[in-house]
Specification:
Shape: globular
Number of helices: 9
Strand order of the largest sheet: 6-7-8-3-9-10
Mean pLDDT: 93
Largest sheet: 6 strands, mixed
Order of helices and strands: EEEHEEHEHHHHEHEHEEH
Distance between the termini: 32 Å
Family: Belongs to the ABC transporter superfamily.
Bound molecules: adenosine-5'-triphosphate
GO molecular function, one term: ATP binding
InterPro entries: AAA+_ATPase, ABC_transporter-like_ATP-bd, ABC_transptr_urea_ATP-bd_UrtE, BCAA_Transport_ATP-bd_LivF, P-loop_NTPase
Keywords: Amino-acid transport, ATP-binding, Nucleotide-binding, Transport
Number of strands: 10
Domain ABC transporter: 2-231
């Protein structure tokens, strides 16, 4: 569904992503993993068009992504839940959700009903400010906001960071439901190994900007964990 070939990215003189080749298969959840600072968020920024790339190809359902500005990429059906959630604290829950509506392909001005079915707390707190929500509720709002666009691919950057364990479990269930009920493909940046193993179908392991291994989650063995994940 999304194919990345020979991707190189620099921050100024600093070469951050090196000749990355990664494929993301339709209908699967691929966990992008690796220690802090290896380039996971940078890779997501490149996919979304928020960071310029130096060279390489990115194709999404046959479209050449690298040539499209960020707003067109979202319109192709790529939803993005950034690290740290980045909801608007002074806007209400409803206003946060409405932000994505103008980019919908069908021009609908209605927040899709299934978002409130998936996250009942967002309906209960519809008129409250985003900043008044708990961390877990804000994460649900950030996911809901990305879903407003009706994406076929959803990218989540560390959705469990700083969230209570019971809510982490719930977020895992929601991701699987999005895949089973809506047929979404998911890219999940994740550092928590048990969560990645529970939710992911495949993994891609980065180290210092390079891809070190990828494959079915069952192949993420102890040797790889020790070498590239344990701190
Ligand atoms: N805006 C920036 N300017 C310069 N260097 C940056 C910038 N953003 C990130 N970097 C550097 O690029 C490298 C990759 O960072 P990135 O945030 O992509 O890693 P990560 O794997 O997502 O880390 P984390 O798990 O901590 O979020 C790091 O060395 C980081 O210091």
């Amino acid at each position: 569904m999304l194919q990345i070939e020979s991707l190189n990215q620099f921050y100024g003189e600093s070469h951050t992503l090196w000749d990355l080749d990664i494929g993301f298969a339709e209908g699967e959840c691929t966990c992008v993993m690796g220690r802090n600072g290896v380039g996971k968020t940078t890779l997501m920024g490149c996919i979304m068009g928020l960071l310029p790339i130096r060279s390489g190809r990115m194709t999404f359902q046959g479209e050449d992504l690298a040539r499209l500005p960020a707003e067109r990429r979202a319109g192709l059906g790529i939803g993005y839940v950034p690290q740290g959630r980045q909801i608007f604290p002074l806007l209400t829950v409803e206003e946060n959700l409405r932000i994505g509506l103008p980019a919908r392909r069908d021009r609908s001005r209605q927040i899709p009903r299934f978002i409130f079915e998936l996250f009942p707390v967002l309906e209960q707190m519809r008129g409250r400010r985003g900043g008044d929500l708990s961390g877990g509720q804000q994460q649900q709002l950030a996911i809901g906001r990305a879903l407003v666009l009706d994406p076929t691919l959803l990218i989540l950057d560390e959705p469990t960071e700083g969230i209570q364990p019971n809510i982490v479990h719930e977020i895992g269930d929601i991701i699987r439901r999005l895949m089973d009920d809506l047929g979404l493909t998911v890219i999940l940046v994740e550092q928590k190994l048990p969560f990645a193993r529970r939710v992911g179908d495949r993994f891609a392991l980065l180290d210092r900007g390079r891809l070190k291994a990828q494959g079915p989650m069952a192949d993420l063995g102890e040797d790889l964990v020790r070498e590239y994940l344990t701190v």
